[in-house]
Design goal:
Elements (H helix, E strand, L loop, with lengths): L4 E6 L2 E7 L13 H9 L7 H9 L11 E6 L3 E6 L13 H20 L3 E6 L15 E6 L29 H7 L5 E4 L2 H20 L1 H9 L1 E3 L1 H6 L4 E3 L2 H9 L4 H4 L5 H15 L3 E7 L4 H20 L3 E4 L11 H11 L5 E9 L21
Parallel strand pairs: 8-9
Antiparallel strand pairs: 1-2, 3-4, 4-6, 5-6, 7-10, 10-12, 11-12
The structure holds flavin mononucleotide.
Length: 378
């Protein structure tokens, strides 16, 4: 009797054991190495310090791994960063708030990578004005590199080890002192027990249930899911599912985008359980507030977000954003209110909600090669 189980690996994290199909599909897992190559190229010399720094910046955390950045090198020491507008997430991120946070993380990584070489990256956000609504074709930032003797940032040591960890965490609660070190900055916080922890757990679970039940948001994520190594390599972005059991489930039929998007199907149920189990296992929830929600405040939230994630990495802690309850599409409104009542009584904007804990690290997430993100000077 063949064992009738597949293991769904999400973003490299062995996660859910699912019962269907047959292990007769003993498929040797094809490689996704080329999709991970940008992690190996960071640190190499490209003959231009801007490219050397950009090779790190493209490794920034960003929503749905869309990597929406486009870069134009200008003159000898400047560059401009633009958003590829069709890589935004209009359903889950209707205001582009999360996309701009990803740009904030990108710019902070760029700054840190330049500083490592003693170069100051002088960042001007939205040099042609900040869009009042959603992003447009104007630049998100202009960056000037100057040999101004910038000091290296100790957190830079964690950049290549940073991962978004989606597997369940062990029940072990990290030491209070460790957590206080990670969440040392103003307008951040954490909860590792008690009523607030329980309330956040409920909010995150409900937020996930809402996002996954609502057809437009579910479809947005499903469309961006790459199933199997060939799809991941062809489009090294989005939500990457790969590994031998994934190839087997794909070939056998139960795992497809259509099935994932069909409530009641096996694949839909697996996705549902995969994410809720991760939330349920969280010994710690953390958060990041901003004074408001302007484009510049979003960029700053992205800068601080990256630093929280790197600090968690330094402490050997897994880190996963849980953004559902912070999203602005209509059915989420009651939860968005609840999370603000709980964490931001003085009218701040909650820009980030995270879970932290102990788990082994997954492989690096796919990235487009740097060359594909460069655009010609006009
Ligand atoms: C603003 C923002 C929101 C995110 N929200 C989520 C989320 O809700 N759930 C999740 O699993 N990952 C979330 N992520 C993490 C991205 O999916 C992740 O950064 C991307 O897939 C690349 O993977 P990496 O961080 O391992 O490089 C978010 C990242 C950013 C910057």
């Amino acid at each position: 009797m063949l064992t009738r189980r597949f293991v769904l690996q999400a973003a490299g994290a062995s996660a859910v054991v699912i019962g269907a199909g047959a292990s007769a599909y003993a498929v040797l897992s094809p490689s996704v190495a080329s999709a991970q190559e940008p992690w190996l190229r960071a640190g190499q010399r490209f003959g231009d310090p801007r490219l050397d720094a950009l090779a790190f910046a493209i490794l920034a955390p960003n929503p749905h791994n869309r990597q929406p950045w486009l870069i134009r090198l200008e003159g000898n020491d400047e560059l401009q960063v633009f958003c590829q507008l069709d890589r935004r997430l209009p359903r889950t991120d209707p205001l582009d708030r999360q996309i701009v946070i990803g740009f904030g993380a990108f710019l902070e990584l760029l700054r840190m990578a330049a500083a490592k070489e003693g170069i100051a990256a002088d960042i001007t956000p939205f040099p042609e004005g900040a869009p009042v609504g959603r992003l447009d074709s104007r630049p998100v930032a202009r960056v000037r590199f100057t040999a101004a003797g910038a000091a290296a940032d100790p957190l830079f040591a964690e950049v290549l080890r940073r991962r978004t960890v989606r597997k369940p965490f062990s029940p072990e609660v990290p030491a209070e002192q460790t957590l206080a070190g990670i969440f040392a900055e103003d307008a951040t916080g954490f909860s590792s027990g008690g009523e607030r922890h329980a309330a956040l757990r409920e909010i995150c679970l409900e937020g996930w249930a809402v996002e996954h039940a609502y057809a437009p948001t579910r479809a947005e994520s499903t469309t961006l899911t790459r199933i199997g190594a060939a799809e991941v390599v062809a489009n090294p972005d989005g939500i990457a599912l790969y590994g031998a059991p994934i190839e087997a489930a794909r070939l056998a039929g139960p795992l497809s985008r259509t099935a994932m998007d069909s409530p009641g199907s096996w694949a839909h149920g697996q996705v549902e359980t995969f994410y809720s189990k991760a939330i349920e296992s969280s010994p710690v929830f953390g958060w990041l507030l901003g004074r408001g929600d302007s484009q510049v405040e979003r960029l700053d939230a992205g800068r601080r977000w990256l630093r929280l994630h790197l600090a968690a990495t330094r402490e050997g802690l897994g880190f996963q954003p849980l953004s559902q309850a912070l999203q602005e599409f209509a059915p989420m409104a009651p939860l968005l209110d609840r999370v603000h009542a709980l964490l931001a009584p003085e009218g701040e904007r909650v820009h980030g909600l995270f879970r932290l804990g102990f788990a082994s690290s997954p492989p690096p997430a796919p990235r487009w090669q740097l060359e594909t993100r460069l655009i010609e000077a006009t």
